[in-house]
């Protein structure tokens, strides 16, 4: 264990722990598993592979989602004050959006093999996500204690998560409903991106624990591109612009890799995975739209990185569970 990890561990020693403190931020892992599952479903046909990997990931993702939803409902019933405390927190409140996004992502994954299941999941996730979006927007408007330094990319999750809805929604809901979700997510992503760059350029750096959330910046244009491609069925200049911006953010993150190197493990590491999966899925879509082989081989390399990250983060999270460091009261 590194000195930094030891210091991080010492901070949780002696704190209250138990199911009442189960972290809602862990739903980011479901987003990561779901995104990797969908990416595998897109890559397997290109390689003429049978769907063994994607089906295994889909089963695991479903099990993890059911387990985490059960724990969240248990907390809501037994420890409602703790859930309310999470929703009042300037960072943790945003991860409630990851709950509904997880349902919508699973709807995408189930859309191929079991469309009836996909439709049920979408009609759970999409309306729930809009309710969470409105609740978060209301809280941000009426609150009196949030400051610019509280702002970080996790704030994107509730509002920009609406971009996920049309990906499976094109097969589940009227087209106008899907454009409503797309418009909400797309316009709010411009607003939130502007605020974030203002915050990061002219105010204090992000806390170390939140540095991995930088990767969330890649999700809005990448998911927006996939959603737009699904809605229009074609690759046009706007779609290319979205993909290009997502790719630019990815290059920026590569330049910033020294910031992320050797960070101690936090649950926020899962923020690396879903945006990386989103750009992988977008790259496959670019290959189908252009037929350019460069995108195909780029998607292969992105998929390989995804699988390495998924295994690594899963093992690190399991280690956290075994050390009884997962359900610990946070500040």
UniProtKB/TrEMBL annotation:
The chain crosses the membrane at residues 21-40, 52-74, 95-114, 120-141, 153-173, 179-198, 210-229, 241-260, 267-288, 294-315. One of its GO terms (cellular component) is plasma membrane. GO terms for molecular function: monoatomic cation efflux transmembrane transporter activity. Gene3D superfamilies: Voltage-dependent anion channel. The keyword Ubl conjugation does not apply. It is a multi-pass membrane protein. Keywords: Membrane, Transmembrane, Transmembrane helix. It is found in: Membrane. This is C4-dicarboxylate ABC transporter. The lineage of its organism: Bacteria, Bacillati, Bacillota, Bacilli, Bacillales.
């Amino acid at each position: 264990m590194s000195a930094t990890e030891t210091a991080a561990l010492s901070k949780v020693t002696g704190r209250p722990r138990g199911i009442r403190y189960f972290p809602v931020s862990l739903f980011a892992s479901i987003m990561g598993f779901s995104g990797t599952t969908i990416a595998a479903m897109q890559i397997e046909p290109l390689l003429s592979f049978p769907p063994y990997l994607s089906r295994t990931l889909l089963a695991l993702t479903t099990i993890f989602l059911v387990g985490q939803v059960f724990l969240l409902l248990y907390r809501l019933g037994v420890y409602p004050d703790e859930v309310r405390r999470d929703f009042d927190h300037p960072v943790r409140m945003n991860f409630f959006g990851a709950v509904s996004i997880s349902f919508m992502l699973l709807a995408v994954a189930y859309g191929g093999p079991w469309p009836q299941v996909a439709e049920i999941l979408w009609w759970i996730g999409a309306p729930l996500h809009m309710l969470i979006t409105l609740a978060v927007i209301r809280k941000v408007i009426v609150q009196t204690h949030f400051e610019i330094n509280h702002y970080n990319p996790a704030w994107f999750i509730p509002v920009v998560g609406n971009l996920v809805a049309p990906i499976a929604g094109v097969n589940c809901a009227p087209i106008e409903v899907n454009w409503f979700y797309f418009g909400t997510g797309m316009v709010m992503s411009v607003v939130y991106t502007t605020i974030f760059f203002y915050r990061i350029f002219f105010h204090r750096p992000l806390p170390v624990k939140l540095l991995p959330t930088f990767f969330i910046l890649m999700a809005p244009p990448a998911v927006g591109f996939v959603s737009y491609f699904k809605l229009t069925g074609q690759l046009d200049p706007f779609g290319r612009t979205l993909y290009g911006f997502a790719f630019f953010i990815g290059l920026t993150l590569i330049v910033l890799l020294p910031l992320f190197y050797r960070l101690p493990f936090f649950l926020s590491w899962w923020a690396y995975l879903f945006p990386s999966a989103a750009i992988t899925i977008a790259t496959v879509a670019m290959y189908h739209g252009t037929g350019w082989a460069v995108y195909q081989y780029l998607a292969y390399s992105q998929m390989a990185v995804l699988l390495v990250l998924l295994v690594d983060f899963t093992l690190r999270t399991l280690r956290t569970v075994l050390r009884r460091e997962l359900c610990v009261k946070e500040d």
